[in-house]
Amino acid sequence: MNRAPRILVFDSGLGGLTVFRALAAQRPDADYVYAADDLGFPYGLKSEEDVKALVLSAVERLIADHAPDCVVIACNTASTLVLPLLRARWPEIPFVGTVPAIKPAAELSQSRLISVLATPGTVARDYTRDLIEKFASACEVALVGSTHLAELAEAYMQGESVADDAIAREIAPCFASHDGRRTDAVVLACTHYPLLQDFFTRLAPWPVRWIDPAPAIARRADQVLSDRFPAHAVRDAGFTFVFTSGAAPAPRLLKTIDILRQKIAREPRARASG
Ligand code: DGL
Fold this sequence. Notes:
Blueprint: E1 6-11, H1 17-26, E2 31-36, H2 48-66, E3 70-73, H3 76-89, E4 95-96, H4 102-108, E5 113-118, H5 120-124, H6 126-135, E6 140-145, H7 149-157, H8 164-171, E7 177-178, E8 181-182, E9 185-188, H9 197-203, E10 209-211, H10 214-226, E11 238-243, H11 251-266
Parallel strand pairs: 1-2, 1-3, 2-11, 3-4, 5-6, 5-9, 9-10
Antiparallel strand pairs: 7-8
Helix pairs in contact: 1-10, 1-11, 2-3
The chain binds D-glutamic acid (DGL).
């Protein structure tokens, strides 16, 4: 097709911007609609039934309004629950999800002690437990459900100051040490968390690999699009930001998003343009 693909990137809040960042580096020629379900945030503390209902109704409206060629559910809490429902409801649209990167963590861990840092919803999912059973049976896996990190990340993106203590408390349970071994890999299984990466690196009791699956998600989205939409010459990606409440994003948030987009534009291209 001889036009830019339109990619809808959906999250409960601003965390999906970490996935958008990787997508825009992979497909700078696409048009992006970023949607934050501020009406439903936070998903991580809600029941499975509530999350399903919120995502289905928000996505329904967004598809009607923006007619995307691909939808990226940039939220682990939603993806571990609703992908089959979304695919059944809109079989003509490819959906790409975000699920905990347990396989790569298990593969690169030397100590065989890994942690999955996620929302309480994601750590409770059967989907997450199945991934551990399938890919990390040789590891001891700590499932760490954080009640505050997603909100702290939202505050940080809105330009508020965030206390080191508050973050250190949330990540502390990820660090285990026994029998001369200690945790060496932590899966960032909530898309909000890479927004706080600098804090994590600085506040960790010892260095670990923090695993952010965003680049892999971006490659997957590119794969599902590339038959119909081969990559075109690089141009300024279109970008629309939507809150499901209809609220306008605050100027400070727009500024943060602008800085993020400028950084992406300066990064070396993930692929040759043509
Ligand atoms: N960004 C979402 C995720 O990846 C969760 C944040 C929330 O609790 O709504 O899980």
